[in-house]
Amino acid sequence: MTSESQGLSRGMHLGGSTRGEIVQPIMELRNLNVYYGDFHAVRDISLDVGANQITAFIGPSGCGKSTVLRCLNRTNDLVPSARVTGGIDYRGHDLYGPSVDPIEVRRRVGMVFQKPNPFPKSIFDNIAYGPRVTGMKLNKSETEDLVEHALSKAGLWSEVKDKLDQSGFALSGGQQQRLCIARAIATSPDILLMDEPCASLDPIATSLIEDLMLELVNDYTVVIVTHNMQQAARVSDRTAFFSAKIDDAGQRFGHLVEMDQTSKIFTNPSDSRTEDYISGRFG
Amino acid sequence: MSDSSRSISTSDFSLRSSSPRIGERIIRGTLFSASAFSVLITIGIVWSLLVPAIEFFRQVPIMDFLTGTRWAPRFKPASYGVVPLLIGTLWTTGIALLVAVPFGLGSAMYLSEYASDKTRRRLKPVVELLAGIPTVVYGFFAIEFVTRVVLKDWMGLTVGTFSVLSAGLVMGVMIIPTVASLSEDALSAVPLAMRQGSFALGANKMQTTLRVVFPAAFSGIAAAVVLGISRAVGETMIVALAAGNKPNISSNPLEGAQTMTGFIANAALGDSRVGSLEYDTLFAVGLLLFTMTLIINFISIRLVRRYREAY
Fold first, then answer.
1. Strands A39-50 and A25-36
2. Mutate which of A78, A106, A133 to test chain B, going by most B C-beta atoms within 10 A?
3. Domain range for residue B52?
4. What pLDDT, in 10s, does the model give residues B250-288?
5. Fewer CB atoms inside 10 Å of the end CB: C or N, chain A?
6. ipTM reported for the complex, 2 dp
7. Do residues B224 and B261 share a domain?
8. Structure pTM?
9. Residues B159 and B193 in one domain
10. Which domains does chain A have, with CATH numbers?
11. Contact check, Cβ <8 Å, A133/B211
12. Dist. CA B172–CA B305, nearest whole Å
């Protein structure tokens, strides 16, 4: 089965199923605002991320979708000037609460980046890195099992099982990205964030990763930022459309236009701006 | 655009150079002679080292020179075993590295991974300032402060005027900026994406620094340390002042010992007659020093190639 037909069965051909309706939210964003210094970059985002669903963030460049994604595992904390107001409720905890350790958050909410970023280590050590730094006490054979499991889940095992001691850099771009996904899976995250994971890949590698996402969502919750609307339509259950606006002071900022079932966003959006963007009439 | 402007007559059309471009040739020639100059100078230095050194080795067998354990070129009978000088250099260099590597790498990691932009901008020039202090000042600092005050008064050690410990410690301080500055450049050059990847897996800052950034920057850090070693091996003023001028195969760092550079500085003061064996001795030691530095640099290049990451 190709990713196209799988995607259609998931996102587009609903036929009255409940696909894309939120069954149980795992994260709830309430009036989220992000500032970089004095710059109020993202304003007033409220949306729900459903458990075991793929949520897609789409929208033009500079609309704040990646910024919002990075709030979900507090990677924005690494930018010294970044500041967040509003709340993100994650399984009953305020993600930005005073007693929350961002390192603990990131151990539960994994992330895959736009450009594959393997570590300068062997393929094996790339996968074993997460379990090692998070203090999972594994012996040699347990580590080996985990590495095999993670690589199998990412669909990379058969390609690399004979060269686990080679550098992660020796792989092709698409393989590197699947290595990064395997690396994230190895720590058994609760949620997997993907920031344009296919942006630097060719269509074949992209289709492999999309298949993988549809596989992963059985065990994990996936949030993906993508510029590729067909991709959002193919894989996601729910889609959030972000856009950029200019305020009275001339500052450009990102905001959420609407969020709904993917089928609805792509066939019958409530907001005309969404329709313009989807159909390519966006200025 | 009208048709008439398109039809250029073929007689006006030429792809030949419109000017001889002499300036380009002059600049190219000037730049070439700039680089040729340094190559020629290097060849000249090697030549001027080689000629007297070969003369020396005609009279003193090379194996006696390299393995002899008594260095007494001015005594009768003279003895030309260079091992004591090598041991002296080994002591001062080793001690210097024990100081420079931890402090240099520590400050590099702090500046690159922990310090805010503002702190880094202010602190890095201060660290680099250490490199600008003349080595003769370091030499007196070693004798007057480190030996007399730190080692004798504060630590109560029985140490004479000269000691390889004092010379090594101060030389270590001198090469901290070399190690720190170059390592910091190597660490900062590691892409942010790699750190983000590590943080996103729940690693903390120390784990990210030691297990991801440090290995990624290893080739640059190795180059920094090796450059530090070359500087320590070649450093003259500090050891000539603070380590003393007594050739000594010592197992005690509190004793003084002459290094190769120390010997050259001492013996080159002008009282050896040109063409004498004593004069040629200088060049033999100089050639050995040159060869050692060359080998160290060669190792450095190999390390850099071996561990360079294509990120």
1. antiparallel
2. A133
3. 22-59
4. 788 888 888 888 888 887 776 777 778 888 888 999 999
5. C
6. 0.84
7. yes
8. 0.80
9. yes
10. 3-116+190-278 (3.40.50.300)
11. yes
12. 27
